[in-house]
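Forum: Protein Structure Q&A
Topic: Joint prediction for protein chains with partners

I've read a bunch of threads here and the consensus seems to be that you should model interacting components together rather than docking separate models afterwards. I'd like to see that in practice. Below is the full input, 908 residues plus whatever partners are listed. Could one of the regulars post the assembled result?
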Amino acid sequence: MADKSYDVVVIGGGPGGYVAAIRAAQLKLKTAVVERAHLGGICLNWGCIPTKALLRSAEIYHYMQHAADYGLSAAQTGFDIAAVVKRSRNVAKQLNSGVGFLMKKNKIDVVMGEATLEGVGKVRVSGEQGGTLSARHIIIATGARPRALPGMEPDKKLIWTYFEAMVPDVMPKSLLVVGSGAIGIEFASFYRTLGAEVTVVEVLPQILPAEDAEIAALARKRFEKQGIRIFTDAKVTKVDKGSNSITATILGKDGKEQTIKADRMISAVGVQGNIENLGLEALGVKTERGTIVTDGYGRTNVEGIYAIGDVAGPPMLAHKAEHEGVICVETIAGVAGVHPLDRLKIPGCTYCSPQIASVGLTEAKAKESGRKVRVGRFPFIGNGKAIALGEPDGLVKVVFDAETGQLLGAHMIGAEVTELIQGYVVAMNLETTEEELMHTVFPHPTLSEMMKEAVLDAYGRVLNI
Amino acid sequence: MPIPVLMPALSPTMTEGKLAKWHKSAGDTVSAGDVIAEIETDKATMEVEAVDEGRLGKILVAEGTDGVAVNTPIALLLEDGEDESALEGFEAGGAAKAPAAAPAAAAEPVAAAAPKTETAAAPQAAAEAPHPSGDGEGRVFASPLARRMAKQAGLDVTAIRGSGPHGRVVKADIEAALASGSARPAAAAADVSKEKAAEKAAPAKAAPAPAAGEPEFELIPHSSMRKVIARRLTEAKQTVPHFYLTVDCEIDRLLELRKALNDQAPEGGYKLSVNDFIIKAAALALMKVPAANASWSEEGTKRYRSADISVAVAIEGGLITPVIRAAHTKGLATISEEMKVLAKKARDGKLTPEEYQGGTFSVSNLGMFGVKHFEAVINPPQGCILAVGAGEQRPVVKNGALAIATVMSCTLSVDHRVVDGAVGAQYMQAFKALIENPLSMML
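Posted by a regular:
Agreed with the consensus. Here's the joint model:
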């Protein structure tokens, strides 16, 4: 393609990059997106969306197996892993072409190829479509990739990352999941529901380390009841590969070692930013621990170069990337009243069974910050809708600043909580106190009633328990 | 379609005012330029002129209504050929306000009414009302958390500039205000908005009965000016770190010079007062010590180039500080003449905002009451105020012997954030030198 000039060139067409591009186009900035593989990025093609499709299959399978609990009969339940995977891929494909349509609609040029910064304001794109793009503002949105532990690097065959775990050729009978963050736990949950023997190893004392300890403990209890073996405070020290299985050595906190044999292993020990081969070093763009350092508005230390999303640091979540992209572009365009990203108001969701969702400070973190807190809880067993759904396990927990009534955090485990959390996020963003939450009418019968009850409980006014 | 006449903003900082008087009644014909109403703000009374012509169709806000928000429609003007039926539908959705229906329509300012005087943004404007978050209607644009934090900290949330959407005050703004100490304290511990609402609901309050054990009293409702005095001076005393410097100035030579000049005055010409000399000396001393001509702001210390001297004038029900602009450039006769005019306008309540806003330094003189010495409260955002006592004969020691001199004690109140002790002292030294060698003022 001929050399072209733009107001904004976004490197990376993931959820952060493509949303940033649309916002830039809305603000009348001439915009291009450079993408090396798929529009929509990992999220849409290899992450959030296709895993939700897989987990939906697992969920329905679970219901089929428990049909009798609801007075239904479903004899001869079963699944075809290839068909489950195919559905997941189709979902990703449908959304991928949707992003292409959005780019066209907003008159954003999409340039396929690998991008390198050739200087401030210059992006070189490899490949047949390539060329040099000049841009007043360059937004790096290159995302992240799975981190590997030395000695157990993923080989795509026996040791998987989420890429392979999402498109298994065969259903493993046994599985070792290393790492108990959202990715590890979601795959553990998926494969366990479909019948695999699953073992999870976590180096920290708690699974789902980012979550509130009380919620994580409840989750662990539920997973163990489902038959997942969990080792915390434990390390995989060695992995021996066989012809169609692995044998892992696990070192526990007590110093004792044991070996676990499994068909496959998923390495889910976190992700790292894609900061290499972009030409950042030559321009002196500051990086730290594998991510680009930015100022809350996406600005790096080099004028005209911005970074958003996973490559700009944790939390590495699609919705954080999207919002960062918008903030960054609005800063570039000089929109009045842009506020920097507030990391404490970014919700996190894990779509295992039971679901887990949270926002803000955990109880422990809130106390660490020196605040006096008020904590409220409401269990699913006290909620009519939860009982009717046959989902009586779960908890809604809220943490308030005792002095000001500020909602500092909310933590939930149980059915559909990933769809509930947003209520608290809105409340936090609008800076409501307990008073407004108590004055808000929640519809009956819904799971959301528990959100109000938890608030009431924090102030000693709980009704239904 | 009837043209709404909107409550005008008489100064850049005005958010609400009192509709003091209607000069026209419904049905009256109005030409452009006619005075149709009088608006009273915290500082002045202004006339509202019609900019359109037509017939006054309906008065929406009754005479005597307090707290009318800027841009609230106060009347409807019928254009040629329109009759009362055109008014229908215009009254709907109005209301909120007690004495008369004042539609709280968020109408664009159509400039149907304009204040008689153009107002210029004075430096004082920014500090006076930092984008107040209230809309003057009792609704406060603040997050519940911000409101609660403000209440807990005793801050008036309406005085805090909001950084949220549409100027909404959010937690961060309260924290910033607390950190900087810039917010003004709430008038009372009570809920301000409720208080306001109550005020509006009962404009003609019955005399309240004294509470048990309380002596009988007459409750004087706060005028707009009283509220401003209370707010600003509370803000000054609570947020400005004051310190005070007193010097004694011998004014015998000044009195001689004054007499000589006044004796030479043409018939009907100037008559200089001691205060005119003080204004001039205060301004010239600022030129000698420019660091004292300063005010505190969050962004930095503002150092002014011009010595615009605010002079406190006692008036019925309070006081006001008209400004002698660039007093360092003006002769004594000019200062004297200007002061005479401004003081009269002040007493008549006719000062325009640009005549009393935006001074850089204040002078308050209570000498005429025989006050020997006093300390004035800083007039924010200014950095200094000079309190002038009476010139009186006192024993002084000269060359080791007791003598008699006319001595005037002057005390400078200083905002330590912008002016340090040594700078304040240098200023007083310069001031004293000018007062004691008044001819040097004439150079």
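Chain A has three domains: 4-145+272-333, 159-269, 354-458.
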